[in-house]
Design a protein that fits this description.
single chain, alpha/beta, Rossmann fold, 6-stranded parallel β-sheet, 6 strands, 20% strand, globular
Length: 187
């Protein structure tokens, strides 16, 4: 299987104590490091959210509401646990919730057998990306312990939604289950 590891928006703005904090960013960073260190994915792509300088529709109100956060370049940096290793992979910016809005990612997805989904925010950018991947016909492997949301309840709700597309479109696993599985698992 040609797996694409997608690391969604692992930025400092989501760390504990940051404005858009998600629970368990350190846990998720460790899980992503395990995946990267395994070398199992054929390709890895990191994404990051950067506010549009020319927002359309509701994005203008979004940018206005969060202008102070978006103006702090430190908050948009990748978390320290992943930043050094991320330099070895493509890092693409996006201005929407879904990472599939990135043309280079869409091309990589079309060439992959499966997309391993990791990152933040479960109930926002991760869910929007998963739904776009399903619409694009990609097989999604949702690595539930490599995804963080604002609360445990949000994480569970997203996992339930993602699992509802199984077995055709999605498969929900832990990182350990993925690393110990055969390529025929979760086809």
């Amino acid at each position: 299987m040609k797996d694409l590891l997608l690391v969604i928006d692992m930025q400092k703005v989501y760390e504990e104590g940051a404005p858009w904090a998600c629970r368990g960013v350190d846990r998720v960073s460790s899980a992503i490091r395990r995946l990267l260190d395994s070398g199992r994915a054929a390709q890895t792509i990191f994404t990051r959210y950067d506010a549009s300088t020319e927002p359309v529709g509701c994005w203008a109100a979004y940018n206005e509401a969060y202008a102070d956060i978006n103006a702090d370049p430190r908050l948009s940096e990748l978390v320290d646990a992943l930043a050094p290793i991320a330099e070895n992979y493509p890092i693409f910016s996006k201005q929407t919730y879904s990472s599939l809005s990135i043309p280079e990612l869409a091309k990589a997805v079309s060439e992959a057998d499966r997309v391993l989904v990791t990152g933040v925010v479960a109930e926002c950018c991760v869910l929007a990306t998963v739904l776009a991947l399903v619409d694009a016909g990609a097989k999604v492997v949702y690595l539930k312990d490599a995804v963080a949301g604002q609360t445990a309840e949000f994480e569970q709700m997203v996992e339930t939604i993602v699992a509802s597309f199984a077995p055709i479109h999605t498969c929900v696993m832990t990182v350990e289950e993925y690393l110990s599985s055969t390529d025929s698992s979760c086809k």
